[in-house]
Amino acid sequence: MMSEADDPGYGVGHRQRLRERLLTGGADAFHDHELLEYILALGIPRRDTKPLAKWLIATFGSYSSVLAAEPDVLRAAGLSEAAVAAIKFVEASAVRMKQAAVHKQPVLSSWQSLLDYLHVDMAHGIRERFRVLFLNSRNMIIRDDVMSHGTVSHAAVYVREIMKRALDIGATGLILAHNHPSGDPAPSQDDIRMTREIAETARRLGITVHDHVIVGKSGFKSFKTLGLL
Length: 229
What we know:
Layout: H1 12-25, H2 32-43, H3 50-60, H4 63-68, H5 71-76, H6 81-103, H7 111-122, E1 129-135, E2 141-149, H8 159-169, E3 173-179, H9 189-204, E4 208-216, E5 219-222, H10 223-226
Helix pairs in contact: 2-3, 2-6, 6-7
C-alpha cells in the first residue's frame, strides 16, 4: 500500500504545466499516469501525486481500472475521501457522456454508442452487475436499471422482477447486459439458460428481448450475433 503522504513534494509549477499542456494539446498529450496524477491532485493538493498515480495503475492494471474501482477498494489502497471522490467524479462524468449519446436516439440504430456506454460503465467492475434497458415502441430507452449487484462470478437475476418493471412502465422491448469481471465475455451455460428463460417469459407478455450483451475487458459478446437468441 502506498500512502498519499509518501512523497511530500509540492509541485505547483509542475501542475501548472500539466494544466497548460491539457488546454493546448488535449488528452492525447498525456500518458495515463499523468491524467491520474492531476485527478489525484484535486483531492491531494499539497503532495506530489505522480508516484501514487503510477503505483495505482500498476496495482489495478490500467488507468480505466483505477477509475472503475469501488470506493472501498480505493480507500483500502490508502486514498483519502477527497482523492476517492475526485476519481469517482471523473468516472461518473465519463459514464454520463456515453449514457447521453445512447439515450437521445433509438438504441438499435446506435448500437456502437450502446457498446461504448456499456464498456465505460461495466467492463472494469470487480463484481458482476446485471443491467436491463427497457425500450418503448420506438426503441428509445425509457429506463436503464441495474437489476442486480453480485459477486466476482455471479449476479442473481429475478425474471419476475424484470417482467413486473417492464409491464409497470409499458416497455415493449428489452436489452439485457451484464459484465464478466474475469475479463472474458464468453457466455456461460447459466447465462444461456437464464437469457432463454427471460426471452420466453417476455414473449408470452408481448415483449421482445432484442439482445443480451456480455461485457468484458477484452470486448463484448452478443447473444443475437452468436445465434443464441
